[in-house]
Amino acid sequence: MTNINSSIPIALIGAGRIGKIHAGNASRNPALNLKYIVDGYQLARDDVTAATGAEEASLAQVFADDSIKGIIIASSTDTHADLIEQGARAGKIIFCEKPVDLDLSRVDQCLKTVEENSVPLLVGFNRRYDPHFSALHRRLKNGEIGTIEQIVITSRDPSPPPAEYIAVSGGIFRDMTIHDFDMARWLLDSKIISIQATGSCMVDPAIGEQGDIDTAIIVLKTESGAICSIINSRRAVYGYDQRIEAFGSKGLLQVANVTEDQVSAITPQGMTGPRIGNFFLERYAAAYEQEMNHFADVLKGTATPLTTGHDGRQALALAEAALRSLKTGKTIFL
Amino acid sequence: MTNINSSIPIALIGAGRIGKIHAGNASRNPALNLKYIVDGYQLARDDVTAATGAEEASLAQVFADDSIKGIIIASSTDTHADLIEQGARAGKIIFCEKPVDLDLSRVDQCLKTVEENSVPLLVGFNRRYDPHFSALHRRLKNGEIGTIEQIVITSRDPSPPPAEYIAVSGGIFRDMTIHDFDMARWLLDSKIISIQATGSCMVDPAIGEQGDIDTAIIVLKTESGAICSIINSRRAVYGYDQRIEAFGSKGLLQVANVTEDQVSAITPQGMTGPRIGNFFLERYAAAYEQEMNHFADVLKGTATPLTTGHDGRQALALAEAALRSLKTGKTIFL
Amino acid sequence: MTNINSSIPIALIGAGRIGKIHAGNASRNPALNLKYIVDGYQLARDDVTAATGAEEASLAQVFADDSIKGIIIASSTDTHADLIEQGARAGKIIFCEKPVDLDLSRVDQCLKTVEENSVPLLVGFNRRYDPHFSALHRRLKNGEIGTIEQIVITSRDPSPPPAEYIAVSGGIFRDMTIHDFDMARWLLDSKIISIQATGSCMVDPAIGEQGDIDTAIIVLKTESGAICSIINSRRAVYGYDQRIEAFGSKGLLQVANVTEDQVSAITPQGMTGPRIGNFFLERYAAAYEQEMNHFADVLKGTATPLTTGHDGRQALALAEAALRSLKTGKTIFL
Amino acid sequence: MTNINSSIPIALIGAGRIGKIHAGNASRNPALNLKYIVDGYQLARDDVTAATGAEEASLAQVFADDSIKGIIIASSTDTHADLIEQGARAGKIIFCEKPVDLDLSRVDQCLKTVEENSVPLLVGFNRRYDPHFSALHRRLKNGEIGTIEQIVITSRDPSPPPAEYIAVSGGIFRDMTIHDFDMARWLLDSKIISIQATGSCMVDPAIGEQGDIDTAIIVLKTESGAICSIINSRRAVYGYDQRIEAFGSKGLLQVANVTEDQVSAITPQGMTGPRIGNFFLERYAAAYEQEMNHFADVLKGTATPLTTGHDGRQALALAEAALRSLKTGKTIFL
Questions:
Q1: Which CATH architecture has domain A129-286+315-333?
Q2: How far is D209 from chain B (nearest CA, A)?
């Protein structure tokens, strides 16, 4: 139901798992016209062009075509910073999957280029667009529970990634906890002044062999005195465990897991509720849709990015500090 | 993301509240091509044509256009039977909102015409397409709770319709309970042999003045001995209350209400969970989408209607029996 | 911790399952002095005297001993009316397990004797003393949900009694539903004017062979227009299912089952909550204690019975009407 | 219902708030004969003697009376170690409220005396006797969730104690968190090797003025690699928040708060569940009863203390380590 005349032409770079999600949401959004798909793998590209009616194109074509107002970068992490810089120089409005880069100085350099070219950059911290976490954020802002004193973020993946992914992931803090760091920053709304991290390898020895951990608890403290605990595991056999609890001077707010349906059974073994969703593509389906709607608003000029390059940079800085704390056993003061 | 070449051209008749929902779902379904919209009200039609890219058309155009394979009838109840018959004679595959008609003999006549013309007819009992109730149905079929012995359907609207609607509604049993009768028939899976109804007017005296009721409990019994209670009210101040409980020889299955989000608060007043959705357009959004997907399958010839004209007829027959029970104080044996 | 000097001497007649519960609660209540136990079975009596320090006695002793102010009748149903009459003539304050008798005219005769002797009679409708149902009743009285429009009582036993018990039980309505009739009367707080019953035998053919049913749904209507549905089964494999839902013009109140503990598990199969209690001795432990506290207050003269002989009579009358409705298929107007 | 002949004579020292709870449970336990109450305040002592039938006595009388087999120490913290030592020398079996002392070396000295006199010492870590946490512990031992990887203990008091109490409390870790340290030790079942603490004063500036904190998150790590987070606050406006979550290789176990009843309301504002209990006397009523039953078993010689002086010592050692971590910003390795 796209109105061809008024919709904004954009291009997608990277047509893998998350790229396909963005392609679907972009093609269903009447304000957007997904014109080009760029991907090295013929097969992935063909899938997405068939489903969306977009044309395949090269990077050069995308950057050279002045009708293309925005680009969605969903390619591999090591290409993000380069593509952002090229996009910025070509004057495109950019939506880039997190992280900007695994190296903080490279991120800073890249953000400088973005700033010099004055293009809006939206970094894909999808959880901020989730309706459940959005509702929590709104209620915190409304002062429903008074002063925020403690936040507990439970964030567990259903199963660990393969060892080869671990090797290029930048480690659990940069790869997985980075989402929780962004969520903590967003909800706490007070400068984080210190961080402590405790970790171990309990899930998969192959992760430990790479010098990484799979089980962690991180504690952040803000200028206001609020304390936040992030509970991470690379493997929750029962599904993708994504909960947040905010405690304040006037009460408690809790975001429960999203379940597959509303059907429960009661048998001699007890009450059995529905299962929780499997992984992020299912759990955050609505968030990805909202994120694309927000990107459309940014393209239309009616919104500025909710999740900026600066947010990406700060979350990465927390990941690096967590790593230093883990290695030294010391609280890192920021 | 419609693939224009292979999608099936269809027309929508009636562009009111529910018509717009169907228009949206049809236009998002890649297998369908919503070509025409027919509606007496210019304004409603314009809305939908603008949103979907469909053209406005007259009834005559729709029936005369051989490229149109299917029609969606979402106009007022009194036009349903006529339009079904015209559609059937024109060889269209039909999706008609419930009810076929408020009069049982008119329904029978209409279904005869459908049969003579051998066109598939899908009657819009949307709840069978709801993922939560579908999951319940599937689990009952799988024998998870053994023999079905009792079913309790709680079905309460958020607020009563205006008196002028009541006047043409056919009464609560034909208008509102008809969905619950269909659900009971589907879940019980044994011939219903008797029905008892108890009712009163507690919500709005204007409803009583029209000879109708707004508060009712109906009890059905099947050949197998299973007993079903339907709990109806025209006004639940807390929202659209749609729950089902199935009790069997091996346990209990419960479908809870769908909530707006997963956020709860705990304050000195207790734990406050999220609100339940307001009304059927929100509660059954996924069901309407699934229903349209199913209609697409019927159009493609890969499925036969899950909810047929016969289902519509039988639910109406139960509504009439309930009315007789209410008036006579007797159990009606079917 | 009984203060011997001020506690009130009482006797227990019948030291079976429920008699033992009452003996325990009486002996732990500092206002009561359980002096005598009467029971035909030496063994049962010995158990209770050992546990409580009470003496064994004959009926004659109990009635002749003027120091005995109150008696608890927990013997078999067929002895209740006689013992109440003897107790009343002896001037004892009486706590009798339900029912007074299975025959309505015998109940009326018995209550006449009680009235003539002006002794308080407390009939053991234990559920009114349950803290959860008490809270519901209090909140309904406080008008929290406005005018009561519908009540749904779910009341399922964990397993059917043996056939020999069925034979002397008076049937499901007099034996089991009688508790629900009392609860309905208490909560509805408006004269019940009609009743309809639907039943079948689905659990145990031996029950059907005795002319009884094991699965039933009963619908009551009050003068105010409120409608109540009672959902009964003799067998819920998952435990003793005791829930009530009250629906009114301002909202809904729900009493959930009481669970064994607060521990839940989440596994790949879903969330599994705690089990519900097995049967009435566990589920209503607090209710039995409160009931005995209330009896102590009646003995002290600071309260009149919350559950009277009249309540017992009215619940039995509803049971008889339900039976007539079941047999005739007609609504019975009271 | 005490059997005077076989019950074991004991004495209670300290008849304040918690002393009264123990007096009540002891007098209701048929195996115990609460003979003496020792308390400096006439009024408190009179209350308890009146309620239980115990006699008032001096400390000297209690220690000199050879018939007294056990003592319950519920006096102020600064008297615990002395009374334990006197009791041990007099050969009494001892139940002492936590902590043994606020000073670790004093605790060690006291435990040495206990050991030399070979008397059983039960330290009042009441939470281990709670049926909900006991069920969690049992299910963890049964391997229901496989290897324990993470534990999150949420433990928040309803309101902060007065400043004068804070002054003698030993600080939040020794006074409040000590219960959570014991729970962590019990559930983790692997040697704790490191501890980190983060804290702030957000609830009451008067607490900060005393050099104490009221908001804290502590992280423990065990030899096995398991990590535990303790979430503490001195003030949860919604009541006494006592929850535990255990995460393992096969799933998750959660202990929810205990609610006042099972009644929920649904109104236009959402679903409102029941309130959680106010404070430890209500929340742990069943635990105190079980604890006394266990002490009776220790007195009878059929059990050894579940919560020993060593447990008290180790929890205190964790409190001291937490304090050092808080002050230095370092992980403390044990």
A1: 2-Layer Sandwich (3.30)
A2: 28
Spatial neighbors of C41 by CB under 8 A, at least 6 apart, are: C15
pLDDT tens digit string along D144-173? 999 999 999 999 999 999 988 999 999 999
Q: Does A3 touch chain B (CB under 8 A)?
A: yes
| Separation in Å, CA of D251 to nearest CA in chain C | 5
Average pLDDT along chain C: 93
Stretch 297-316 of chain C: residues touching chain B, C-beta under 8 Å: none
**Cα distance between residue B145 and residue B248, in whole Å:** 5
Measured between alpha carbons, how far is residue B245 from residues B139, B188, B223, B229 in Å? Answer: 12, 12, 20, 10
Residue A4 has pLDDT above 50, yes or no: no
Of C271, C243, C236, which is closest to residue C258 (Cα–Cα)?
A: C243
Q: Residue D139 and residue C263: Cβ atoms within 8 Å?
A: yes
Chain A residues within 8 A of B151 when measuring between CB atoms: none
ipTM: 0.93
Res D106 pLDDT > 50? yes
Please check the confidence at residue C181 and state whether its pLDDT lies above 60. Answer: yes
Which fold does the domain C8-119 belong to in CATH? Answer: Rossmann fold (3.40.50)
A144: closest chain B residue by CA: B265
CATH T-level assignment (fold) for domain B128-286+315-333: Dihydrodipicolinate Reductase; domain 2 (3.30.360)
Residues 6+ apart with CB under 8 A from A241: A154, A155, A156, A233, A257, A276, D252
Inter-chain CB proximity C198 and B227 less than 8 Å? yes
Q: Tell whether C243 lies on the interface with B, counting CB pairs under 8 A.
A: no
Residue D97, token pair as written in the block = 């409220």
Q: Share the mean pLDDT of chain B.
A: 94
Q: Where are the domains of chain C?
A: 8-119, 128-286+315-333
A274 with C273: Cβ contact below 8 A: no
Query: Which residue on chain C is closest to B148 by alpha carbon?
Result: C202
* In the predicted structure, residue D2 carries a pLDDT above the cut 70: no
* Model pTM score: 0.92
pLDDT at B4 over 50: no
B152 in contact with C at a CB cutoff of 8 Å? yes
Distances (CA, A) of C68 to A21, A157, C24, C47, C64: 81, 69, 18, 22, 9
Residue type, A175: D
